[in-house]
Specification:
Radius of gyration: 27 Å
Strand order of the largest sheet: 4-3-2-5-1-6
Largest sheet: 6 strands, mixed
Strand content: 15-25%
Helix content: 40-55%
Number of helices: 13
Shape: elongated
Oligomer: single chain
Distance between the termini: 20 Å
Structural class: alpha+beta
Length: 475
Amino acid sequence: METFLIKALQLIVALIILVTVHEFGHYLFARLFGIRVNRFYLFFNPGFSLLKYDPMKGVIMLCSRDENHAWKTIRVGKAHTPRPDGKPTWRDTLYGIGWLPLGGYCDIAGMVDETKDASQLAAEPQPWEFRTKAAWKRLLVMAAGVMFNFLLAVLIYIGIAFHWGERVVPYEDITEGMTFSEAMHDAGFCDGDILLALNGKPIDPRDSNDNWGLTQPGAVVTLLRNHTDTISITVGDQLIKQLVAANEPYMAMRVPVYVDDIIAGENAERAGILADDRIVSVGNDTTPALDEFFPALQAHAGTAVPMAIVRGDSLISRDVEVSDAGKIGIMLRQPAKIYNVLDVQYGFFESIPRGWHNGVDRLTTYVSSLGMVFTKEGAKSIGGFGALGSLFPTSWNWRSFWEITAFLSVILAFMNIIPIPALDGGYILFLIIEMITRRRPGEKFLERANTVGMILLFALLIYANFNDIYRLLIK
């Protein structure tokens, strides 16, 4: 129970930060363009609110349904009147906290969204409304939430780099070497090569200039090949052009196939595989690293296959059933538990580009992995609040909390930019179409599109949380 509460608390605190920053992006840009914001809410409030603050009246209302029905009303300032010229101020906004932690909202005047429909915009448009502003201003208001979430992630990564630094593995300690892209293969690199030196000097994994220097024309890279042969490669002038054209990672760490844990009742347990075993072949395919292991499993999906295993000082063989999805029921050991890891510290100015790099890297990695969602196995892996909560550690750890919060901020930024009605991306798509065609979608159309979008989102929410319940109670 204590573990559940700690995970739940971390998730709630992270959601408070992420939702507040996201909605504040919309709020700030709306205010910059002179648009009135009627309500600013953390979490949703169907039926009642946990708290409301009305700066125009100078009161805080606790457990409030409306201004006339509140458990307690506290006077915190004097009452104010609207500006004579009608221009909106921050006091025109009702600030509140809802009881349903599914997000939040910024109720912008003159805009069809989840808080109002087209019938509520029947009155004559006012100069302080969203609908009267230029399309580019409305576009910035809608994109601000996404931008703020991504910038929050970058700021968190900067803070992590500055305060805690990073953990890196020296290249010479990566005993299985690196996996290289096709362009790197053409330049003479081979999968499994261990990087030793660049232009006669040891390569520093902390230095992005060293990593980039491996691809520069004329660079001399010293390698250990097959664990026995030391060779040198002089990089030609075509490599950098090929890498830019390919626009993909040019190398990655190779990770040996160590079993960290066994999933109870799965095929690996039935075959007698144990934690700490290393799988070095699947059938006739040698598997020095995960790059070979995963394709080998897929090639033998749905069959039983002999696997060579190193256990202590012994080499043994086990026949293992591979599922139709190409799995055997093991948890793989992470690189940090296999290789020698060094702690790296960054100064303030060094942490800024490092934080930006980490933010972009997490975003591109997440986007590239989304293709899995549209497969059968990927759909089963979708999770809701239970899955999000499980990301956090069982005890409060500030570094882990901030790393996960930053990653969730990246996810929130990307998910909101997807062009689905009711999400920011849907509004942005309609605004881009408007700017191109110079024709604004009708408010009734936006209302219907918004309704369809909300139905899709709630269906996905129900499905994701059902998966959590199924995994917890049944599977």
